Amino acid sequence: MDDNCVHYRARFRYLDTNLLHNFKTGGSxxxxxxxxxxxxxxxxxxxxxxxxxxxENNNEHRFKQTDAGSLFLYDSTVNSCTQPNGIYxxxxxxxxxxxxxxxxxxxxxxxxNAKMENVHCSPDQHMVVHRADxxxxxxxxxxxxxxxxxxxxxxxxxxQVKSRCGGNRSCELTMNNNLLPSEYCSDTSxxxxxxxxxxxxYSSPAITLEKVRAFKLSRxxxxxxxxxxxxxxxxxxxxxxxxxxxxxxxxxxGFEETADNKIVTIQLGSGQNIATGDLICYNTIxxxxxxxxxxxxxxxxxxxxTIPYVQCKICDKPLLQDxxxxxxxxxxxxxxxxxxxxxxxxxxxxxxPRGPGTTYLMLDLQKQYHITQVLVMADVSQVRWxxxxxxxxxxxxxxxxxSSAIPINGNKYGYKASITSLNIYNVRYIKIQSTDNQHFCLxxxxxxxxxxxxxxxxxxxxPSDYSAHMTWDIPTAPEDSSYITYFRFFLNDRFRKxxxxxxxxxxxxxxxLKPNTEYTVKIDTEDGSLQRGTPxxxxxxxxxxxxxxxxxxxxxxxxxxxxxxxTYIKEVMVIVQIASDNPKPVESxxxxxLKPYQANTQDPYITAYLKTDALPLTFVIGxxxxxxxxxxxxxxxxxxxxxxYIAFLRFFDTQNEYYSTxxxxxxxxxxxxxxxxxxxxISISLxxxxxxxxxxxxxxxxxxxxxYANYSALNESSKMLNISREMTSVTVAVEFDxxxxxxxxxxTEAGRSNTTSETWLSHSAPLKSAEKTDDGYTxxxxxxxxxxxxxxxxxVLLKSESSEPxxxxxxxxxxxxxxxxEDNVAFKVKEFNITEFKNDTIEISLRESKxxxxxxxxxxxxxxxxxxxxxxxxxxxxxxxxxxxxYWSKPFTVPKGNS
Length: 899
Description:
By secondary structure, the protein is mainly β. Helix content is 4%, strand content 42%. A hairpin with a 4-residue loop joins strand 41 (644-653) and strand 42. The protein starts with 11 loop residues before the first strand and ends in a 6-residue tail after the last strand.
């Protein structure tokens, strides 16, 4: 016997003939039972010749191992087993008692990175591996069974050898980093020591990787480890569970790592199907990347069984597991409503498309997301999956099909999730479909986070007095999410307005503001899912405002100067009110409070609506014109005289937002100047009249600036008269027998007075000059027109030596012939009733006296005096008593001594 089991001379192996062969000698272990020389000892017979070889290969020397571990001679006529005896090994005559001293264990020591050699049972037996430890078993070239072993590497070494070699006739594993990776076996300078025995008809009950049909966690990425063996799911009770094993298991299942790498165990009830032993996953140099060693014993759980509960991490922010945020309704697809699209959720059984044709799964994430990973898995039974997928996405459902397809890694194994890293933004709608031409099932998880709209940039505010113009830019990079639908605007930290991007673009007018005031404005972004970006803030100060000053312009108007507002202001409204002690604040006057002018109102009213294109402008309040908006007419009502008014301006921008100035100062209209008094309208000569007037006392601080006067005949155009400020009368030319109207008004600082007018009938044409006869003069009266409704016609004589006779209408008529001494006197000569006109004329003979009697040819009137000058006129009196004169005829003088 040799104490150094690793020495070459101590190494044996089974030959195919069931003989134990020695490496050193090349001979076999034999016995010569009953030989007196060697007693019953076993020895190595080195057969050098043919006879020796025949002896060595005799069936009497075949060994096998009993189930109890004893070495048994196959063909011995005696039931005998071998047993060490001192330095020898003897064949015991008393048979196999399966005593401890008769039990043998085969062993093998293999260097790291070397292939296991000569680990064999006889051809009729199978090995049972009892131990496969990793340690320094060849210290100083001598086998040391008591060597310290690597407690981290030992479990994997045992699992690999037991699961791969148990039940086999031989074991020829290469013990390198493919089976013993560095995360478990970092020291590669040691050896693997394997102990095994050989048994007849051995069938290992152990569960190994080859027997496992499916492999999962009970809750997809968390839960108990479960394996499917022989139509039964069993939960794994791993005896040496630690953080490293948990991490590697998660990676093997396709997940990144454990959630927080804590070891969690749970008490399992009794009587459940379990599998106890080793389940160790590790990295490999193979394309698959990981593998697992499984060596488990099936059983039923006893009471209070402690079992690992694994929590694998899909990613930092898995989305679809949140059924509140993503209800089943977010899942749809190309099939019918009963296709169970929601089963694609990773915690469900899997969506398996029904029927032929192109099938796809559609997800509506309800909001825009930044997606960083897509994880796909087979169905929960791990029997159907796809090797590749394509993904399309958009923020708009109608744009999904037009987007570029992104390849998504499919699954290679039913148990393993496949993760594709992405970096896509503005994702709301996702369409995913298999690119494999095969039936498949899909479970999916998305990783990412809600995409918050980017904040605005380049925020700029241009202040005015009562308003400010704000502009900004929108970032357009994909990660900035430019699909912004609204902006929220805050002023001094108070919410002011929800601004539609479609309506306002990237500009907004802030109004109303107070002049010369500091403000802080804040704006944030909002998308269609009500996600909001980071607010951006800036400060500004409004400009000092110019006051609204009213200035009296007339007794019916005031004027106000309206400056040019900022370009975004498009219209301005002028609001007027009779001044009061406590006018309503302008900011409280809403649109419904302001209406066009109404009579007898004391409320503010809109007197004009102006386009700012016409500004700057000195506007006259009360000019009597219309200034209308598109929807409403506004009459600029003349103001009341000697009345105090206030006004303010309201400016409107393009979005119909407005700001208002403060109420103006109070300004009082002038007192209306009095109208002139027409004193007289007197004829001064043939077809000429003088019109005179007087001016009443003017109000304080008013003087006459100008006269406005005209006269006109009935149904004829008027004639303007040029009258200077100093004049109080004017001479006008007329035609005979027409009705004229004279109008006059004055203008002062307060405006024009009322118009004063007077109507008169101009004289009719003078009578034909008196015709001299032998005994006097003949005068012919004209019959008036019928429409004049004349009642009486009178012949009037003017006794006057003057070349400028008085106006007929102002003379005092005497009823009798004047005395010789009287001059410039008019008297009635003869009056006729209109009925006395038998023809168009009446002829009257004027004589000095009745002494000169001749044949009577006409109506005779004795009214003349010798040496006296006369003029004639016809005076008509109408039915209303109005006097209608003809102008004086040419003078005639009665000769002296004519009587």
